[in-house]
Each structure stands twice: as structure tokens, then as C-alpha cells.
């Protein structure tokens, strides 16, 4: 099977072949958190390629001006251009490998604040300011870490499990307002900060990905396509769902503490 184009860096794609109709998101507005690098950046790029879509993306360095500026810009854009829908993707995350016994209280809290509080705060503000009256669509970026209790990941696994619960709770509460809430759960995705921090390159070089059913890492464009599906009318009857896009990795990959400690040590994590 031919894979979608991607590059390992945060550069834009040299070429891109649409897999959906280019006007799938016509006249909509997208707001993407964590859009400054990695999966979030590729989502922003792929979303910008369709005709007549406005994309607003945000990264942590801009977070302080977010509440003041963003909704002025988004609501103005929506109102002025009569754009009739609005959706957002949230991909802000923080992670590193660390055993629970070595994890400080502040480290756990920091990751929860970025991943879980960040998702809730943004979802709530978007809902109050726009979705409540106009409907909309939220796509969260999740993870499979909690499915089997991944070693060295109690902080990120707990945070993303909370986000999966939040996806369902908000889908139930906000569905009557015309708001869909879904999530994509990526596996190891090359060319991302997570891949570098969590030992993806070493695992790939060591042949560990042979144990993944699809026997390779995913790429950022593939994650953008999953997000595009959930953000578009192609998934119009889906809400409260987590779309796992990991090549089957969570089913078969090693979850062995000793092996993962080896990766963590070689990455100079605080152990
Ligand atoms: N292992 C264990 N603890 C760590 C750590 C690591 N590799 N990196 C940071 N911490 C701890 C710090 O020691 C601190 O705890 P302390 O005050 O008890 O010493 C706490 O986490 C907060 O660290 P700090 O650097 O002040 O927070 P930050 O907000 O600047 O950074 C992180 C947030 C820690 C999540 C950082 O890794 C980050 O910015 N990541 C963003 C990118 C990313 O992780 N992408 C991958 C997504 S999969």
C-alpha cells in the first residue's frame, strides 16, 4: 500500500495528494492547539490545503494571549465571512519517560495540567464562546498508554485516560448543542517530539517495530488524515469515539519495565 507523503522534520510537504475532496472543509474555521510542531503542525498544514478553510493555530509560547486574541479573531472570522462551522483540534501535550517511583509530585501535576487541564480549559472556552450557539466539532489527540498500563508513563497515561473520559462526557453533554467530540489515539509517529523523547528512533533501529502488526511507525500525515476524517462530515454520526491509529501497536508492543528502563537511561531521563 502506498503511504501518504510526509517529511520527518517540521517542514511543509513538498507535494500532497488529496485523499478526500479538497473542498471537504469549505467555509469552515479550524483552531488547532499544539499547532507549532509535530502532528499538530502537519494537521494545520493538511487542513490549510483545502479551499476556503480558515486555520488558526496556537502553540504554548502563545498561550497567554490566547483568551484575549483568539476568540476575537475566530468569531470575527466566522461572523464576517459567514463561515458556517467551526471545529478545533487539541494536540498540546507534554511527556517523558520516568518510573512512577522517581516522578516528582510536580512532574505528575505538570503533565496533567498541560494534557488534561489544557484540553478542558480550551474545550470549555470554545464551547462558551462559540459552539454553544453555533455547534462545532472537537477532535482531541489521545494515546493508547493507559490501555495496558504502559511502564514509565503513569503521568501521560493518566492524563490521556482522563482526556478519553472527557471526550465521552462532553460528547454526551454537548451533543444536543450540535457539538461532536471525538479523539484520535496515535501510536509511534516518526518525526515528532514524542517519538524522539520516548525512544522511538532507538526502537525502530533495534527492529522493535517488527512486533507492531503493521511493522512500522506511523507518519504525521496519516494522523492528519484521521483528524480530517473526524473533523469533517465524513464522520457526521460519530461522537464520543476514540479512533485508534497505531498500526495495532498497543495490542502487541513490549510493555516490559526492564527494556523500557534501558531506553529511558539511554535518553538521560531522570531516573
Ligand atoms: N523526567 C522526570 N521528571 C521530569 C522530566 C523528566 N524527563 N522533565 C521534567 N521533569 C519534572 C521537573 O523536574 C519538574 O519537577 P520538579 O519541580 O519536582 O523538579 C516538573 O517535571 C516540571 O518540569 P518543568 O521543566 O518545570 O516543566 P515545563 O512546563 O517547562 O515542561 C515538560 C513540561 C516537563 C512536560 C516538558 O517535557 C515539555 O515541555 N514537553 C513539551 C513537549 C513534549 O513533551 N512533547 C512530547 C509529547 S508526546
Automatic annotation (TrEMBL):
Keyword field: NADP, Oxidoreductase
Reaction(s) catalysed by this chain's protein: (2E,4Z,7Z,10Z,13Z,16Z,19Z)-docosaheptaenoyl-CoA + NADPH + H(+) = (3E,7Z,10Z,13Z,16Z,19Z)-docosahexaenoyl-CoA + NADP(+); a (2E,4Z)-dienoyl-CoA + NADPH + H(+) = a 4,5-saturated-(3E)-enoyl-CoA + NADP(+); a (2E,4E)-dienoyl-CoA + NADPH + H(+) = a 4,5-saturated-(3E)-enoyl-CoA + NADP(+)
Keyword NADP: yes
Record-given protein name: Peroxisomal 2,4-dienoyl-CoA reductase [(3E)-enoyl-CoA-producing]
BP GO annotations: fatty acid catabolic process
GO molecular function, one term: 2,4-dienoyl-CoA reductase (NADPH) activity
GO cellular component, one term: peroxisome
Species in which this protein is naturally found: Fundulus heteroclitus
Matches recorded under Pfam families: adh_short_C2 (PF13561)
PANTHER family xref list: PEROXISOMAL 2,4-DIENOYL-COA REDUCTASE, PEROXISOMAL 2,4-DIENOYL-COA REDUCTASE [(3E)-ENOYL-COA-PRODUCING]
